[in-house]
Amino acid sequence: MINYICNECDRTYPHDTLEFKCACGGLFNLEPFDLDFKKDSTDWSIFRYFGVLPLKGSDEVVTMGEGMTALVPYDSKRPNWLLKMDYMMPTLSFKDRGAAVLVTLAKHLGVKKVIQDSSGNAGTAIAAYAARAGIPCEIFVPAKTSPKKIQQIKAHGAKVVLVQGSREDTAKAAYEAASDNDAFYASHVYNPYFYQGTKTFGYEVFEQLQDEMPEFFVLPVGNGTLVLGVYYALCELHTAELIGHMPKIIAIQSEYCAPIHYAFHNSSVPYSSSGKDTLAEGIAIADPKRGNQIMEAIRKTGGDVHLAPEHKILEAKKQLADRGFFVETTTAATFAGFFDYIEKHPELENDRFVLPLCGAGLKSE
Ligand SMILES: Cc1ncc(COP(=O)(O)O)c(C=O)c1O
Ligand SMILES: [Zn+2]
Questions:
Q1: Number of the ligand closest to the Cα of 141
Q2: Is 338 in contact with 313 (CB distance < 8 Å)?
Q3: Which tens digits make up the pLDDT trace of 237-261?
Q4: Ligand 1 close to Cβ of residue 305 (< 6 A)
Q5: What ligand has the least distance to the C-alpha of 293?
Q6: Does the CB atom of residue 105 touch ligand 1 within 6 A?
Q7: Which of 14-18, 21-25, 50-54, 177-181 is predicted with the least confidence, judged by mean pLDDT?
Q8: What's 71-93+194-363's CATH class?
Q9: Domain 94-190 - what CATH class?
Q10: In this structure, are residues 279 and 314 in contact, taking their beta carbons and an 8 Å threshold?
């Protein structure tokens, strides 16, 4: 297991701390650790890439065969748009990648309880993996979260706490509860082990495409678990000279909730929430805690942040369904943003893009 290091003051904390951020207010990253790029080809889960995960020393991993998702062309006319089927996961979203790694840590630590807050999918994933590990679990969600996601969390025996107010109010309620009763705050926002799980998305694409890595990854961004995870994978592979070029990350935000887009483009208009609810609930994060890290990652790849026009989200959902892909509305937003980006950049017509199907259609109303 690997210790934490504060991204503000470099103070370190042992991997078994129940603190979730530094006393200075900074966020935890992981201390650098050795990577073994040799995969275990007999393992058909994300733990195939155990050698690049910070889990050496753990007795057993908590897994349900997550990951190993196919890359499928958008359609026969666009074989260069490759869709990664991350909605085909134990809890029907990509968050299982992060939950498998974070709950493996929680199990190793022998924690009595995990607490988490989420817009829905990360909570579902933590609830399922905690159930599998036999750890009691409490999930805080905004009161307006899709009823189907709440039902899914409850099905795993987790206690669900509905919080009135913003996504940030939900997070505050969760970490207050976690500090009160010595529970492990299994936060996908604060805990860097989660991002090591989402990192496997990038390792899989590398195994699938080898020396034909795409020019672009087009990824949704709320709190940045996928953007940062993919970025870590690309950096590690690039530094080890396993990939020749650094693909660019194009991050998509909803037009109605776009703090990273505004900050990235240095808008002269300071960001304030549009006040309107977006259909893309999974990326409706007004105050992304790792905003600066996310922007730095995107910049380092030479990438961009682009908006999904709200009125195009349901149209994109239909376009995907017409090709056989039934996705949750947040995933449709990624495509609404991507289609708009391509329209504005016709010169990229023949470039190769990887886009995730992050969540399954049955999750949204
Ligand atoms: C379906 C879906 N897509 C994308 C995201 C965005 O992920 P992140 O907040 O880690 O950037 C989420 C987050 O919950 C999600 O549920
Ligand atoms: Zn600090």
A1: 1
A2: no
A3: 999 999 999 999 999 999 999 999 9
A4: no
A5: 1
A6: no
A7: 177-181
A8: alpha beta
A9: alpha beta
A10: yes
